From TrEMBL:
GO cellular component: myosin complex
A GO molecular-function annotation: cytoskeletal motor activity
Source organism (scientific name): Tripterygium wilfordii
InterPro entries, alphabetized: Myosin_TH1
Domain TH1: 1-154
The protein, known as: Myosin heavy chain-related isoform 1
PROSITE patterns the UniProt entry points to: TH1 (PS51757)
Short name of any one Pfam family annotated for the protein: Myosin_TH1
Length: 154
């Protein structure tokens, strides 16, 4: 996996109760919190769940069954942002240069585990539930030399 601080025995602790059989993706990325902070996290996608780990403490921060994921929201521009929408919980807003790979793997894993096609919403503005009672909107705008991204509370 390439993370010296996450051992295979650590990962096996997650696998036993959830029924995971295979790691499909693992990498560091940025997660945006409901309060607007940016945290480095490890995203781990298996055949049955998505895991968010803290690379500094090796603590599992979140476990989301693939069947709980409703859709993914992405901009139509060249940026690293994406949101994983989970109707039964708060959503995840993250950024990674491997966004396309993450979207593809998560879509394929969802289809394999639950036989439904994960909805992909491409828009230069989308809303997500940053916390229980907090909706935020991510706005993307093409500017000279790149993409301007704004996150505003609704």
């Amino acid at each position: 996996m390439g993370f010296s601080h996450v051992t295979s025995s650590d990962i096996k602790l997650f696998f036993s109760p959830a029924g995971d059989k295979q790691v499909l993706f693992a990498d560091k990325l940025l997660k945006f919190t409901g309060t607007g902070k940016i945290k480095q996290r490890i995203l781990l996608i298996t055949n049955v769940a998505v895991y968010i780990l803290d690379p500094e403490t090796d603590i599992l921060r979140r476990q989301i069954a693939l069947v709980a994921v409703e859709k993914m929201c992405l901009s139509e521009l060249s940026d690293n942002f994406f949101a994983i929408i989970i109707p039964t919980e708060y959503d995840l807003l993250m950024a990674s240069p491997r966004k396309t790979e993450i979207v593809t793997i998560l879509g394929e894993a969802t289809k394999s585990s639950s036989n439904y096609e994960l909805e992909m919403v491409f828009s230069n503005s989308f809303q997500y539930n940053a916390a229980a009672e907090m909706v935020k909107e991510v706005q993307f705008e093409e500017v000279e030399g790149g993409v301007r991204t704004r996150i505003v509370r609704k």
